[in-house]
Write a structure and sequence with these properties.
Length: 290
């Protein structure tokens, strides 16, 4: 037979002089630390809307705007598909401009990204690199196109130059953020056992950052195809040249045809890009998870 458990001895009485002090309330934070950042940001945005609303006004009644839009939209129908051949050739040129610009931008932005990553480069190098990328991004793609046309003339090369510079500012920022998201301890460990800087980067940082690098590059290609359709307005080649000509002659039916082709190309590229990015990301991250 099992014996019943022995009764537990009572806890010894606590000496009143040894009692723990009562819990103290936490110290009150200053008023600026008690502010909810999200609420303050929302309040500032609402104040900015109230301030900006009086400055955005038209020159007529809303009914007049609707009538003008109805007349303008009516000129698009029916689209004139007699320009299908030349539009397809212009779209091919637009695609070529975007591909070459993206390729050059990837090559040129890579060293900027390495120098701009805080976990790789010294602070003064990071500052110079980020200032350079900010300066490049400050100039819109259309202004880059105007500069390129003034230098090399009105041709597709101007479009490649413009989109290359414009893309460098964004890809450099995206790539540097991809490198900063990687734990550098692996690379430091490789350096500690005698690996060179290139080997440590190749085997310690690049495999982990590669999925984001490819994803950002594909996104930039899609964006450049859209931008290449606009910079033609200033003579930088592509389908934008057609849009500018038809707008100048108020030939809205042909203008609508070009827009339909651009919409079709952009839609296909969005679907294809999303599929490719998901496959690349899943394929490249799978070994890292193991």
């Amino acid at each position: 037979m099992t014996q019943p458990p022995l009764p537990k001895a009572p806890d010894p009485p606590i000496d009143p002089g040894e009692r723990p002090p009562p819990p103290q309330p936490p110290p009150e934070l200053p008023w600026y630390e008690r502010l909810n950042v999200l609420n303050v940001t929302l309040l500032l945005f609402l104040l900015a809307v109230v301030f900006s609303a009086p400055g955005v006004r038209g020159s007529g009644r809303p009914i007049n705007y609707w009538e003008s839009f109805s007349r303008f939209a009516g000129g698009f129908f029916p689209p004139d598909f007699s320009i299908t051949g030349e539009t397809l050739l212009a779209l091919v040129e637009t695609f070529q401009i975007a591909v070459m610009a993206t390729a050059f931008a990837i090559v040129f932005s890579f060293p900027l990204a390495v120098m701009g990553a805080q976990n790789i480069s010294p602070r003064w190098v990071v500052g110079i690199s980020r200032m350079t990328m900010n300066a490049i991004r400050t100039i819109p793609s259309l202004i880059w196109a105007l500069i390129a046309v003034a230098i090399v003339g009105a041709n597709p090369l101007a479009g490649v130059i413009a989109l290359t510079f414009y893309s460098m500012g964004y890809l450099g920022k995206f790539f540097s953020e991809a490198f900063e998201s990687v734990d550098v301890e692996i690379a430091r460990g490789l350096r500690a056992i005698g690996a060179g800087a290139v080997q440590a980067f190749q085997h310690g940082l690049w495999p982990h950052a590669k999925p984001l690098i490819w994803s950002y590059s594909l996104w930039m290609l899609e964006y450049n195809i859209r931008s290449a359709a606009i910079i033609g307005y200033v003579g930088a080649g592509g389908v934008g040249v057609q849009l500018y000509q038809y707008q100048e002659y108020y030939d809205w039916q042909k203008f609508a045809t070009v827009l339909l082709f651009i919409l079709a190309v952009v839609t296909v590229l969005d679907l294809l890009g999303e599929w490719v990015r998901s496959r690349i990301t899943r394929k490249l991250r799978k070994p890292l998870a193991g």
